[in-house]
Each structure stands twice: as C-alpha cells, then as structure tokens.
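> tool_call: predict_assembly(chains=two)
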Amino acid sequence: MKSPPFEYHRAGSAAEAAGLLGELGFDARILAGGQSLIPLMNLRLAAPGHLVDITGAPDLAGCGANGGGLHIGAGARQRTVELHADTLATAPVLADAISNAGQVPVRHQGTVVGSIAHADPSAEMPAAFKAQGGTVTAQGAGGTREIASEDFFEGYFTTALEEGELVTAVTVDAWPAGTGHGFLEFSVTAESWPIALAAVLIHTSGGAIDRASVVLGGVAEVPLRRPEAEAVLVGAEPGAEAFEAAAEAAATGIEPLSDSFGSGAYRKKLARVLTRRALTTAAERAGGDA
Amino acid sequence: MTVPEVRQHPEHLEWVGKSIPRVEDPKFLRGRGNYIDDYEVPNMLEVAVARSTMAHAKILSIDTSAAEAVPGVVAIVTSENVTDHVNPMPDFGPSPDKHTWYCLAVDKVRYMGEGVAVVAATSRAIAEDAAELIEVEYEPLEPLTDLLEALEDDAPLIHEALESNIPFQRNFTFGDVDGDFAAADVIVRDTLWWGRSGGQPLETVGAVADYDAATGMMTIHVNSMSFTHFLFLLANTLRVPSNKLDLQPHPSGGSFGAKFFEVKTATIAAMMARITGRPVKFMQDRLDNIANGDHHGSDRYYEVELAAKADGTLLSTRYKVVDNYGAYIQFGVGQHGNSLAQAVGPYRMSSIGYDLTAVLTNKCQQGAYRGFGSEVGNWILERMVDLMARELDMDPVDIRRMNFIQPDQFPYFIPTGNVYDSGDYEAVLNKTMELSDYKGWRERQAEMRAEGRHIGIGVCTCQERSVFSATEFWFWFDEPVAAPVTSAPESVTLKVDAMGAVTATLYSNASWGNSPETMVAQFVAEELGVEPEDVSVVYGGSNQGMPATGPGGSRFTIMVGGAVEGASQSIRAKAAKIAAHLLEANEDDLVWENGGFAVRGSPDQRKELAEIALAAHMFKHSLPEEIETGLEASHVQDHPYTTMPNPERTNLGVFYPFVGHASHVVVVEVDPETGRVEFLDYAAVHDCGTVVNPRSVGGQVIGGTVQGLGSTLYEEFLYDEDGVLRTPSFAEYLIPSAMDSPTLRVGHNETPSPYTPYGIKGGGEAGRMMAPSAICAAIDDALGIRIRRLPATPERIVEMVDAKD
C-alpha cells in the first residue's frame, strides 16, 4: 500500500493553485486534508502525477458567517467548521453531518470543501450541503464562477468542475429562523462508511410546513434530492402521518445499488426509515411560526 | 501414557494469582517493542507480491519485462519459475501431493489474491510500482466458492490431481447414537451457517531473511510461526538443511491464531534473499494479509439434530458438517478436532455423531483463529440447546443447569474420548446470574417491552478446552499420512548468574500481544523467590533452541509453567548441594523458603540464592568435586496428558484435557427497522482454573468477547459468486471498535486442574468461544426470530423480522 510516484507542489494562494492546475491539467489533483485522496493513492485506485497542496494558502483558510450564509474556505478543517458558532447558528445540519464523518482525529485533518469536491454520493457533507443549499465557488485560469449546489454533483466522484478548476470555497445559504433540521445515517459499525443517510430541513408557518428539503445519501450516484417527498411535506401539518407519507415518497422510485455493506432493497428500506426519523427530529427542532 | 498423577497444589502462592503490571509494558508502551517492520539491515531489499485478479484461471503467460526495467528492481520470481527455487509449503492434510501448495500459484490461480510474482527492489514502493507492471495472461476457469456446489458432480475442480473437491471426509460415531435417538422423546433439527471471519492483528505478518552463502545458514527474523518444533518442514520448503535454518523471533502486534504457522511470508523473503544474495524484508500490507494471508477462519454449513427426553434431559447430538477450506489445506484438520474436544459442551450426553466433509473452493485457505473451530462447535451446540428449550417451553437457564456435568463426576470422559479434567459449572452459572442481575434484567425487560422496546437477554454456558495434543492432526485418518506425531512440547532455560539474577530463555515465538514474559516472570518468582520485575526474559533463536510449540490452543501458560517448574526443580536441587556444603549441613536437613535454603529448625543458618549462585559460578574448587561451575537448567515440558486414539477411531483418546468453562449473559436492544444491535449490559464469568494474573486474563476475556461480537454481527470475508473478494480492506471488512463494544463486567471462578502446575487451565481463547452464542440468543429473544447464519448483519436481522411479519 505505497502510492505510485507523484510530484508535490505547495500553493501559497488560490491564484497560485489555479495557475498550477492550469499548467498541469488533469494529471494534477488538489491536496487538502488528504483523508480521501491519500488512501485512494495508497490503494493505487488513484494515481495523479501531481498534487497541489492548498493547506498553506491563507486566502483559502477561512470559515464564518458571510452575508447571512456560511462561508467555508477550501482549507478549513472539518472539526473547525463542525464546532464553529456560525455553523451551529446558520447550518446546524452541516455540523451534524460532519460529526458523523470519521473520527475526531480524521476531522481535524479533513476539509469540508474537500469532501464536497470529492463528491462521494454516500458521504455526509455533500448531502447536507445540498439539503440546505448554497453555491460552490470555482476558480480556474479563466477566473471565478459560482455553481449552485443543485448543479454541482453530476455522478459518482464527478462534479461540474472543469479541467483546471479548483473549489476555493462553498457558501451555505441561510434558512429562516425557526427552521428545524435532521441528519441521520446508518452504518454497520460506528466507524464504517454509511450505507444510507438522510439530511432534511423543514420550516413551518401557521401550523403547516411551508418549506422542506429532503436529500438522501448512499442511494444513487449523487446526493439525491427527493422533490416528491418535499411536495408531500409542503402544506402538510408536521406529524407522524405526514412524515411517514414523505418517507414513503422519498423511498419510492429510487434504485440503490448493492454492495458488501447491504443490498439495494435494504438501502431503500433504510432510506424510508431514516427520512421519517430525521423529519421527526427536524419537527422537534423547528421553532414554529416565524 | 497413563493418567497423570493428581497434584497437591500449594496452599499459599506468593506471585501466581496477583495482578502484577505486565513486564512487557515498558518496552511496548514506549514504542521499543522491536517489531519486525522496525528491524532494518544494511543493504536490505524489500519485496511486493503481484496478486491474482482472477478467482480461478489458467496462467498462460507472464511478462515481467516492463517491471524489470524499473530502476531499483533487483530480482523477480514468477509462477513460471518458483518451483526452481523452493519446494511446496507444509500441508498437514492427507495426500498433500494432490493439493500441492507453493508460495506462488503454479500453473493456475485458485483464489483472487493468490501470488503470481514477487518483486525484490530497493524499496517497497518501487517493488509495488514494478509489481503493477507485470502482465499476466489468464484463461478464466469457472469459479467455485459455494461449499455445497463444491460437492456436485459437475463442479469445477480446484485441484485436478485430487479428482474431486473433497480433500478428506470422515463419519465418526462415538457411543450409541442410534440408540439414544430411538430413546428420545423430542428431536430438534436445524441447518446453521458459520460465516468466514478471521483474526485481524494490527500488525501484519513480516519476515527479514538473510542468507549467508559462505556458511549456508539461512537466518529469518519473523513475527510468525510460534511452532519452532516443526521448523524442519520450513527447511524442506526452502531447500536448506534443517540445521542451517535459524528463526529469530520478534514480538508480534497480535495474532489471534493468524500467525500460528504462517510460513509463506518467511518462504518468500528467504527465497528472494538467496536469489539476490542480500537481506530481504517482506512485510505484508493489509491487502496482502486479507486476501492472501492464509488465516481465514472456519466457513461451515451444519445439519444438526439434538435428542432429548421430554423433561429436557439431553441425550445425543448428530452433526453433519461441510467446511469450506478454500484453495489449499494447511493444518486444517485441527479445526474439527477442536470441535470434538468439547462436543457435548458442559452437558451430560452419552453419544455424538460427527460427519465431516472438507471441501476446497476458490477462496483463500483457512488458518487458525481464536478457538480454532471449537468456537463454532460451541455456537452450534448452544443454538441447538436454545432451540430445544424453545421446543419444550423451558427457560434457557433451567435446561442448561439440569444437564450440567456435576462436580463429583470429574475427571469426566466425553463420548469422543477426550477428558474434562475438572469443573464446577453450576458455580460459574450462579456467579454469572448474580453478576448480571439476570432476574432484575428479566423484570426490567418486561417493563421496557411494555414501552414498545425490543429488549433481549441471552445466556450461554460454554467450554474452553486447552492444551492440544498433536494427535488431533491425524486422528481423522485410518493411516496417518505424515506421521502419527504425539508431541507438542514447550521448553525453557533458566540461568541464575553469579549475582543471583535470573534469565529465562523461551524457545518459541511466544509474544503475540499476550503476556508470555509476565507469565514466566511470575512463575520464576514463585519458584525461585525473586521479584518478577528482576527476571530477564529473552528469546532464543531456533537453531540453538530447544523443542517448543508456542501459544496456540490456549496452551502456552500451562506448558511454560511446567517448563519453569521443571527447570527450577533442577536449579534448586543443585543449589541444595552447594548450600549444604556452605552451611556444613546435611542436604536432607535443608528447607527451601523465601528464596534460599535454611537448616530446618535453625532459620538463621541460611544461604540466599544469590550467595549460592556466586559460589556456583566462582568457587568451583571450594565445592565438592561433582559440582560443575554454573547454575543453569533447561526443561522440556511434554504434553501432560495424551492418550492414543483407538484403531477404529470410535475413541480418539485424550487430546485436549484441561477444560475451562464460562457463562455469559448479554442484554441487547434491537432496532427492528434497521437491524442495529445495541448492548445494554454484558456480564461474563470465566473459570480457567487457577488464574495467574487476573488483570491479564481479564483482558483476554474482553478482547476475545469483542472479537466474538465481530464474528457474530458483521465480520466476513465475503466472496461473490464470481470469486471476487468484496472485503479486501478494513473499509469493507468491518471490525468492532471500542465504540461498538459493550462495557464488559468480568468475573472469575477458580476450579483448579488436578493435573497442571498450580491448577492452571488455558484462558486465551475465551470470550470468542462464548460471545456468539449469548449474543444470538439475546437478539432472538428481543425480536422473536431465530438466527441460523453468521454474521447476523443488520440487513439479515431486518430480513428475519420481515419474514416473521
């Protein structure tokens, strides 16, 4: 389990990283926390010729409230984001998601943006990010552009990034006060990869749900939004009946694959159970009329 | 051999029984354990193995040209020329020529991960770069992984020379099985599957080999092969004379049986060392270890029948078992001897039928794993006793208690011929009931169920046999294929130097994460009256060594205890002669007490061991003529209690005589929608005779129980129908961590063995031999299901719940 040879580059800024990527092309990968990339290289499942380390770039390091949303720089460590007061205030579903990822030492090393850019459809942070919504800031030789979270994930480990682009930050949109969130995953052991997960947010007004987001992980090639479930929820009175119906809608029509952790049918069942329970938790946390 | 003499154990023990801190701790906790991967030699090469990507395929050609061109590559051996360099590896099964096993695949690959080439290079990374460039052209053959399909007439053959996939088969009848079944009021039947898991040491297997062409000596530093007694087999594999092979033991970061007699790593390192003329290290990585580490555990299918009277009296069990050994046989025959050693559990049953069929398939071969097959036997029997309790509507505790072998029935010969030396099962069960608050939990269970919670309580009462005899390697066969070996010894040398300081030399590779040095230090302290931390414990290389077998089958503590006892007796005998001379007393008037000899009735007239040792080393010519300089003794401890199988094999003789016992009570809460099992409580009481160090044996119980939890709930080497290993790393092969484990409460009961030093019985495999039975019973109880296949993964639990509804 030794990595194939590669060249290591250290970028002092986002612009320098973008410049290196532009120069080196697809043979280069961004190295942030390395908690996904390095194991893949040691298993020889990835063999980039060049690594561009961005953890020393001061302009990528930040994390905090930004115009009502939450800004997370590409160098910000998961543990920093997880415990940040602005995360807890603005995007608690993301804090919950991070707390389920790996162990604490791993989260001190890994980055939130790295996990999102890695785009593993079973991972926690992409699902939570997509559930709450926001934008990805990508920088390349041609400049900077914004990609909506809804459009960012395109397939297994595949994103809307183009050759020569890196993610410099993500911004998570704020939801109105009183929003309730739920994040639940199921893994066989405490430290193993989640088989399925659900990230949900609901907001109520006048005793009825007026806004809902339901995203599943581990059941498709991307973190999967479930508009059918959201449609069941919006306008409904929060409660067991609505949540069971929404969970049923969330799990209907999905076709998860099977692997050594569990069959597609089991994942589907878990998706329903986790959605229902996450919604129940979200309702308990929701503040009611805003 | 006849029955050994019944011992009178001393009433007072100074050191045996005390939880002294482990004497190994200072070096290991400081990172100075001298693990094999830290061992570096100048000019050393490292190797990587190119492993098969196919489960079953003919090797058509191997192209190493690109690999050879990588700078730093020194030598490559492939499937095409490996037989030029080495002989086959040891195979304890019958007809080893019909399933010949080399360190690399020859002619065809028989499982995914089998080695097809070895690259020696100046670094492991370079070796891996080159291994990746080796191109193997395969002609795929039909893969075979299912053990029942392996029996079909048209099944693909794993070894064509065998002409079937059955390397051995035997139907034993011990006692009047048919008569007992005819006399039964109730017979319960079931089919049960034990999935293939294995020991997962944090440190994998490693070897550093160094061949001296001038002397012909092959020196191999290893963290595997406790079994120095059988090293001539490795010498044959390596084509070196048996007296030109020297194994230097290094401590191992865990084995759990997985390194017991792992010869492949050393074989590969030694082969490349001789070819290159340079020292060579082969350190398996996790992928090597899981796919090609020769240590997968039992993989069995059972059809079982248990016969009883209407009142719950157990009569007889019939087992029909098929065991999937994978592609080759190592010492696989031992796994079922282990089951037969305690086939009736702690219960009075007068007969056993045992019909075994071993099959070969496209999986990695089996090795040893904590319990070595007896843990499977325990689980099967306890599953059947639970089924009988359900059938008769009896409490699972009551049916066990009423069938226990009673304290006055020991030594108790079970139908297979093995003996249980001693025991008090009711005392253990009572302690467990108390420790677990079983009654209280039953009451709480009723309350929690009323709240809609799925709470289950499971109980097991299981045996732990210890100290195997070598007869179990061949009593399966009418005509032993190799030799009807009878010995599995353990040796020690004790040296008291001129200052009275004691060095103990061990001759097996004994340090596996257990506490061999602590055990030896406690024994030496007990026998010679020194402080345990003052005893220096070292390991001898095999070439200058003495016969030794090392840890395995929970034997080491008892065997090395006997060796220390014997060597100490010799030292004291010589010391007595010297002391008598120094004290001008008659030797018969001396008594040994507190680490010295005193004249009986005159305690002031005494010589300490250090004074005697100084005289022994320095003042030869002041001593009587017959006393030689020095104070050193060695002792070979042979198996204390072995008897031979009869020719008809209706009685296998005594082969695993020191039998401990344990009872576990586990309380779980299960989520029927997800299948998650949460532990609310776990209590375990073990009886391994006299406990040498309660803290260290308690650690063994906890570790073993957590491994049992893994085997029960999620660990499995999963091969799909194409023979693809779906769990090649710890990302997929899931092992329990502290976060998944219950907080165990451990209790001890002590029923000393009448036949061993101090009354010790083995305890090193405990925990794993009990946990699966108790956990399954608890899950069944929580959900009203019946677990018949391990691992009982969350998905399988949900399927059982759904099937019930």
